[in-house]
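Email to the structure team, subject: alpha-L-rhamnosidase model.

Hi all, the expression group asked for a predicted structure before they design truncation constructs. Nothing fancy, just the tokens so they can compare against earlier work. One-line instruction: predict alpha-L-rhamnosidase, return tokens.
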Amino acid sequence: MRVAQLRTNHLTNPLGFQFDRLCLSWVTESGGSGSKLQQSARVEIAYDSSFQHMVLDSGQQQHIDSLAYTPKIELKSRTRYYWRVTVWGDAGDVATSEIAWFETAKMEEPWQGLWITPSFDRDIHPLLRRQFQLTADVIAKLEKARIYIAGVGLYELELNGRRVSDEYLAPGYHAYNYWLQYQTYDVTELLLDGANAIGVALGNGWYKGRFGFDGGFSDWYGEEFALLAELVVTLDDGTEWTIATDPTWKCAPSAVQSSSIYDGEVYDATKYITNWSRSEYDDSDWSPVQPTSVSTEQLQARLSVPVKIMEERSPVEIIHTPAGETVLDFGQNMTGWVRFKTTASKGTKLHLQYGEILQNGNFYQDNLRSAKAEHIYIANGLPAEVQPHFTFFGFRYVKLQGFLDDVKLEDFTGCVVHSELEQTGTIETSDPLVNRLFENALWGQRGNFLDVPTDCPQRDERMGWTGDAQVFASTACFNMYSPAFYNKYMFDLRQEQLRRNGSVPFTVPAFRSRQDDDDMNSNTGSAAWGDAATVIPWTLYLQYGDKEMLRAQFDTMKDWVDYIKRADDENGGKRLWQTGFHFGDWLALDNKDPNSPFGGTDAYYIASAYYCYSAQLVAKAATVLEKHELAEQYVKLVEEIKAAIMREYFTPNGRCAIHTQTALVVALYMELVPQELRARVISDLKAMLRENDMHLTTGFVGTPYLCLVLSEHGANDDAYTLLLNDDYPSWLYAVKLGATTIWERWNSVLADGSISSTGMNSLNHYAYGSIVQWMFQHMCGIHPVAEAPGYRAFTLSPKPNGRLSHAKATFHSPSGLIESGWHIHADGRLSFSFTVPFQSTAKVILPDAEMSAVTINGAKLQEAGLLKDQYQAQQRGKDVACVLMAGSYQIEYMSTKSYVVGNEEPNG
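Reply from the structure team: attached below.
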């Protein structure tokens, strides 16, 4: 056995995070040891890595859960804790993990530092510094040194001329009106004997720069740059030295002339101050700082996962366009920036502009609306390696101006920037277009998971739209290990919700038009968007099995449904949601007005459906948390809503009054109609697809559920048809046109390569990438189950289709590695490969099988040693079902259905 992937609050060795609760998790791998289940486990927590000074020793216990163990210990501030796990397996083997750690921040300690701001014009980007001395005796006794720092807008921290971290865009984007994050950095190795210096550069970011709706505006959260910091030096005898922000710090203008999330950055290297953050620099002519009124009461230790350069890519081509431009093609639409080398002469203006697409072979930016998306660097005549400091771009193409004619590819590097999340899922099939579709959805997540789940990374928007976040949440959790990322987002959402009587804004953090400045209820309360309050917490519980995270977010779920119910009660208590503004099935194709972004499905029908769905999720969460009276209350509410929806929108025989694909999809997915009417609804949906030549017309609401519903209700071939369509509208239409991310619109680019519109047209907009959830759950068959979340138990029910010869998913679940693949052989055999992780069981559904024909790992299924007691295989109609414990399995049989690879027809 092997015990690995130790995480604290779903993070690896977190430093200085908020620990309102403590959740320890790990993965046990059997490693061929013979053990398949955990018999017991022991968790040890200590102040030291040798475990001589213990904080907790659980002892050997049977109930310890590797998905979420929550020890009851009282944490101390600014303290590192070490922990390890020992697991005993059911075959008698024992394994102990490597040592993990976590370290608390200041917690309730008061700040000694003061918020300071430059004494010059508030629009000038500042450098701030402080020099200090450490004696040789101090360095000899040095045990640790930490900097606790908060800055607005963005900051970059240096100590003795070195960047202290590989994190960018700190402190990130959060609901600054209600809380401010501070970060903690270990700088022990950067301190010197004698003179030392701290330096901090500040930029606008989301806090102070141009941002928001209608092209944005400046100073939404604050009007001035500000910094708060404490360097705490701890000696081995417990003595502490603190160097904090105070009036002794000094400031000077930086070389950054302007910075903006939307517009980019202008940097004048001729104004760069050499060695400005080193001790030997003479700052006698620098200006004094002054105190400012930012409050320390809003400060909280970080929740944000660090934003880092997660990959570096070389450009694939230099394009000389018909317009005479020099353009770099990176071959991939991505988020981040370009780093480049230059030896340009002093005063040379190097201008980089970022764009997603070429038009008529030329560089193009019109779909970015008012965002300039540019980096201007004025050279100082010295060799330099250059990248921006306080901005990011969404781009594939970069137009170069001011560079020498002999531009060299090797001088440019594309830096892919996003929150530090581990990829957990992969999918590979026999169709390269489907494989590219999966990659596009993954790149969409990379590009838009930048501290908040944004809608797009390139134009003058880049906000945390709640609707996009909730429809993509399941896909996100398959693709990447996302609980900490979403936990921070849900904290922001809760802060916004608390000021809105339970409602949820369209974007989190919230943004309103300037004219709505005084109206907290503007841009708030839309169905499917606000339902992020219920959908995301339940998705996180289902995927990761952390009950305490669900408990922490339960009030958010409940308050959202209660908000809707109040609106319903104020409108007559019809148990329908028929008030307020709703986006409806945004960007669907079934509106009679082709220019309208609103779909053809009645928005109040969608609102009522989500009213029901969110109430269902609250009832489920209440049951899990053993809030049984509340669960009964919300189950009753659900039944009332369903009855009202049936009266309002369906005939007694199940015909829906709203003739759209989305109306039927939502009815089935959210279980709005009783079981006996679902066959009628799915039949009507299939007929509607045939009426539309087997093409979808759905938008942001209907699309995420469409293929899921088809596969769950016996129309799996139709789901494959929608997946594999490659003409408009379809997923593969974009792939065939060269898309490398997911588009905002089904026809963001027309068949001739021209962009379809410029007012609202992002080429990196991940919502429709939610098809990947269907690929994992139905094409490859990996289904979580609510009764044993976190993949303690799950279903493996892959659904092959002859238009693909094979498909396989790998998924590093919270319980361990899950694999599910299938192959259709030329002679009609079906073969499956499955991996079930340690401590898990999988219910396997083998399609179109006769039990007598099935072999598992070379033996007949009926004779296999695993088949005893509750693991007995059963023939269930056309399928065979069995339960597999931890291990790897090869299953094969002659299918009772004829799969002709490449020729299978819909409904075949």
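DSSP finds 16 helices and 47 strands in the chain. The chain has five domains: 2-104, 116-301, 309-415, 427-779, 782-894. Ping us if the truncation boundaries need rechecking.
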